[in-house]
Design brief:
Elements: H1 17-27, H2 35-55, H3 59-68, E1 77-78, E2 85-86, H4 88-99, E3 107-108, H5 115-130, H6 134-155, H7 158-161, H8 166-182, H9 187-198, H10 215-236, H11 252-256, E4 279-280, H12 291-301, E5 311-318, H13 321-325, H14 334-338, H15 341-350, H16 367-373, E6 376-380, H17 382-387, E7 394-400, E8 405-410, H18 423-435, H19 443-451, H20 459-463, H21 468-471
Helix pairs in contact: 1-9, 2-4, 2-5, 2-18, 2-19, 3-4, 4-5, 4-10, 5-6, 5-8, 5-10, 6-8, 8-9, 8-10, 9-10, 15-16
Length: 477
């Protein structure tokens, strides 16, 4: 007789896809990664470190760091940019929150999630705690990205419109996978980890409707890391989680997905491209949905910023979620501003799109930015909707004050696999973000330390570079 927990729903077979994926994850090793895969992992780690370093000085991260001081000395994991040493559970939470705090962290477009914040933070924190080698950490991070991507695609893109935040929802499974690998769990232990995590999974999009209460979105990367680390720690101590956490009758895909769920994504196939090679990096510190819009605007206007008096109106067409969740014209917080299409286009026209300081609360009332924001309209476009979420495409039409208009369509933006950022681009991003921090840290030294991971050096050698104590500076009050 078929067990009831093996039935995923109408049209689904009773195959235990959760177990199939767990077996695949634990059977892989570092030697299965190609030279290009390892190079890509290094780029992802560098990008993460740039984001978490700069993010550690933001107000919400500072509040968490103050909270974490209670736990100083509880472990060896480093809170980036501080002299604090805590358990991986605390460090993962704080560092992943910092990484997700700038809207600069990487994206897996098809799952609508930001894997790196939770997965890389978990790899570095747990890797330091258990004394893992660089290769072990790189392999565990690759596995975390893979699971984040697969559970996201299996559950389906409708989670966003239904009000669930994919980074919080899917990122925890990626972080749990990374932590479980570093704790040496087998396939049964990994399934237990996912089963335990399932009862912690969540993440509401209500922040997108509130101009003030948006800091919780920053915490979603941290929640994912903390819950993933906790689930792996509990499974490592023998606590069992329910089977088929991903595809069971009350598993992730059925609970949070709808008719667009595709649980076959949980079963890897020969020739599948690894998720680490499907990641989009961010050249602009705002919602990923806007990046093709900014690139199209650049195609039309040339170099940004430009003369505000030239632009009469800006019309945008994109996926349905764009007009549904991103048209707040008077954001009252940095997060709301980075999630506002009108405001972000105003920033791009007036100041250029690359400066994270453009979203500081003191600048939210800039009359020139708001004047452009009031000229932005957005509609759902069926062509872009059909391409979404594999492509975050949009079209932009600018009506000029002289009566002329120009339209450009962009299916893929800078930073996507179609138009990737190079290692040099990421190092320049690192330098720009590090220069905004009250510390001295050399991007070349960090690059060398990241490259040393492939030679099996201890991960703690890398994370110590980001210790405020080693940098000889003090955390600003």
């Amino acid at each position: 007789m078929t067990p009831t927990n093996a039935v995923s729903g109408p049209g689904d077979s009773p195959i235990d896809r959760t177990r199939v994926l767990a077996n695949w994850v634990v059977e892989r090793s570092y030697v299965d990664l190609s030279e290009a895969d390892v190079g890509q992992l290094e780029i992802l780690v560098l990008d993460h470190l740039a984001c978490v370093l700069r993010g550690s000085y933001l107000p919400w991260s500072r509040a968490l760091i103050d909270w974490a001081r209670t736990y100083d000395g509880s472990g060896e994991a480093i809170l980036i940019g501080t002299d604090l040493r805590t358990s991986a559970l605390i460090a993962g939470f704080v560092n992943a929150t910092a990484a997700h705090g700038l809207e600069y962290d990487d994206t897996h477009d098809a799952s609508l999630s930001h894997p790196g914040a939770a997965v890389v933070a978990t790899g570095l924190a747990v890797g330091t705690e258990v004394g893992a080698t660089g290769r072990q950490v790189l392999q565990a991070i690759a596995a975390g990205y893979e699971v984040t991507a697969r559970v996201g695609r299996a559950t389906g893109p409708s989670v966003l419109e239904r009000g669930f935040h994919p980074t919080a929802l899917f990122g925890g499974f990626g972080a749990a996978t990374t932590a479980a690998m570093l704790h040496g769990l087998d396939a049964t232990g990994l399934c237990d980890t996912w089963g335990l995590l399932l009862s912690m999974a969540g993440g509401s999009m209500q922040f997108s409707q509130d101009p003030r209460g948006t800091v919780v979105k920053r915490l979603h990367g941290g929640y994912a890391a903390q819950h993933g680390i906790l689930a792996a720690q509990l499974a490592a101590r023998g606590l069992a989680g329910p089977a088929q956490a991903l595809d069971g009758l009350y598993g992730l895909a059925r609970l949070f997905g709808s008719d667009d769920r595709q649980t076959d994504w949980l079963v890897p196939k020969l020739g599948d491209r690894l998720a680490i090679n499907q990641i989009s990096l961010k050249p602009y510190p705002c919602c990923r949905l806007f990046h093709s819009t900014i690139d199209a605007l650049r195609d039309i206007l040339g170099e940004l910023p430009c003369d505000v008096h030239k632009v009469a109106s800006i019309s945008v067409g994109g996926p349905r979620v764009l007009p549904l969740q991103h048209m707040m014209r008077r954001p009252a917080s940095a997060m709301a501003a980075q999630y506002s299409l009108p405001f972000c286009l105003g920033v791009a026209v007036i100041r250029g799109p690359c400066g994270e300081d453009s979203f500081e609360e003191a600048r939210l009332a800039d009359p020139d930015v708001l004047a452009i924001a009031d000229r932005v309209q957005c509609v759902a476009d069926e062509v872009m909707e059909r391409a979404f979420p594999e492509h975050f495409g949009t079209w932009v039409e600018v009506q000029f004050t002289d009566g002329t208009s120009v339209r450009r369509d962009r299916l893929d933006s800078l930073g996507t696999p179609a138009y990737p950022m190079s290692r040099g681009d990421v190092l320049r991003k690192f330098r720009r973000l590090a220069d905004a921090c009250p510390i001295e840290i050399d991007d070349h030294t960090v690059d060398v330390a990241v490259a040393a991971l492939r030679h099996d050096g201890p991960v703690a050698r890398l994370t110590r570079l980001f210790s405020q104590e080693k940098l000889g500076s003090t955390m600003p009050s």
